[in-house]
Amino acid sequence: MSQDTFELLKTMDVKKIELQLSLQCAPVLSGLKASNLFVISNQMAGAVLDLFRNTKYRIRVIGQNDERTTFLLYREEELYTYLNLPEVRKILKEYGYQKSSQEEILNEFSNRYMKYLQGKEPFPHEMGLFLEYPVEDVLGFIQHGGQNSLYTGYWKVYSDLQEKISLFEQFNQAKERLIYLVYHRQFTLQQAF
Fold it and tell me: How many CB atoms lie within 10 A of CB 80?
């Protein structure tokens, strides 16, 4: 993040939903990625659901604890296309996702993530697939137990380092643009959708 953007952030209300969306979900809102997690306080969860009603984005609760709600924000067609790639379907089947519809697969993932939050199941490392991380990096993370990555950015990178660094830079630029627009009150969720 540039120093200028960091200075802007220091003057902004970090609890504002638009700013949190810019910080956490800029790649999705900018069309660079199909999905992202969005974590926000439980007090704001209802407002978040209302904001995304009748938009081109889908949002679903995938986990909640006493303080925070975790959403999956996604562009449905793009995410479903990714989840239907043969190599992605193969991994999901290996991890026990036997249902055929995308909605059933997302429900299963949500159930697993919630059980993880409750301490009933281990972390679902296949989460990276639901966040449209490259298959080779998801597999690298699983095979290496999160160790020995080439780089850590928006996820841990295990191959094609320069390509991923370039992609992360695009994500960062999108984040900075959205922060700038929120700061100057030129970006609202209603305009974005």
Answer: 16
Q: What ranges in 11-120 are assigned the alpha helix state H?
A: 17-29, 42-51, 76-83, 86-94, 102-117
β-pairing verdict for 35-41 and 151-152: unpaired
Q: What pLDDT does residue 108 have?
A: 96
Rounded to the nearest 10 degrees, the angle between the axes of helix 17-29 and helix 161-183 is 140
Q: Which pLDDT tens digit goes with each residue over 82-114?
A: 999 999 999 999 999 988 789 999 999 999 999
Sign of CA dihedral 148, 151, 152, 154: negative
Token output for 154: 């928006």
Q: Hey, where are the domains in the chain?
A: 3-76+125-192
Q: In whole angstroms, what separates CA 33 from the centre of its chain?
A: 9
Residues of the chain predicted below pLDDT 50 = 193
Q: For residues 171 and 193, what is the distance between their CA atoms, to the nearest angstrom?
A: 19
Question: Which pLDDT does position 145 carry in this prediction?
Answer: 93
Contact 172, 6 (CB under 8 A): no
> Can you say whether residue 96 is alpha, beta or left, with left for phi > 0 and alpha for psi between -120 and 50 degrees?
left
**In the prediction, which pLDDT does 193 show?**
43
Q: Residue holding tokens 């984040």?
A: 175
Element (H, E) at 157: strand 156-157
Predicted structure pTM score:
0.91
